[in-house]
Amino acid sequence: MSVNSVARVIPAWVMYFLLLVPGGLLFWQVLQNPGPNPVETLEHGLGEYALKILILGLLITPLRDFFGWNLIKFRRSIGLMAFFYVFAHLVVYLLLDKQLEWGPIIKDITKRPYIIAGVISFLIMVPLAVTSNNWFIHRLGPVKWRRLHIGVYAAVILGAVHFVLMKKTWQVEPLVYLAIFVLLVGYRGVKRMRRA
């Protein structure tokens, strides 16, 4: 059975449940084995899952172009789940890490470059998540809706930069994420230029 045949049979909503599994397992692992810093483990784990799911969403177009795999119907659910993990990452930071102490939070937002990059990425993603439904597509029209959602490329690059800067030293894993995002966004950019 081909990938496209399987994709046609599986409803798009199944992706929501599949992508909830890693977060649920992470939460369960932290409960079972908190370790020295459970809040940091949860916070960083949720952020990394957000990056992985964003990569999954960006892979849909090249997979179609190079292998003929039509997974477009899953793109919305993948994008919304990526936003869910980003939001959960932010909630853990605000509630568990900073315990809603707004002085330190504002200091982070204004002084720490990796926090600034992460906040800007999140703010870009908010309108994308809000408008990821048929009502807004009809309301805005397909052309305006697509233009708005081009913002995802800036959001993913900033998310990867957030991860790189957070480590404070040049570590391989964050740089690999950044390179993958640059490659996937660059691919889309070249494709758009060729169309133009």
How would you characterize this protein structure?
The protein is mainly alpha-helical and 196 residues long. The protein has one domain (3-195). Helix content is 83%, strand content 0%. It contains 10 helices and no strands. It has helices at residues 3-9, 14-32, 38-67, 75-97, 102-111, 113-130, 134-140, 142-149, 151-167, 172-195. Helix 3 (38-67) packs parallel to helix 10 (172-195) and helix 4 packs across helix 6. The radius of gyration is 18 Å and the shape is globular. The protein starts with a helix and ends with a helix.
The count of β-strands is: 0
Average residue pLDDT? 91
What share of the residues lie within helices? over 70%
Q: How would you classify the helix and strand content by structural class?
A: mainly alpha
Characterize the biggest β-sheet. none
C-alpha-based Rg, rounded: 18 Å
Discrete helix count: 10
End-to-end span in angstroms?
36 Å
- Total domain count: 1
Q: What low-confidence regions span 5 or more consecutive residues with pLDDT below 50?
A: none
How does the overall form come out from the CA principal axes?
globular
Order of helices and strands: HHHHHHHHHH
Beta-strand portion reads under 5%
Lay out the secondary structure.
Blueprint: H1 3-9, H2 14-32, H3 38-67, H4 75-97, H5 102-111, H6 113-130, H7 134-140, H8 142-149, H9 151-167, H10 172-195
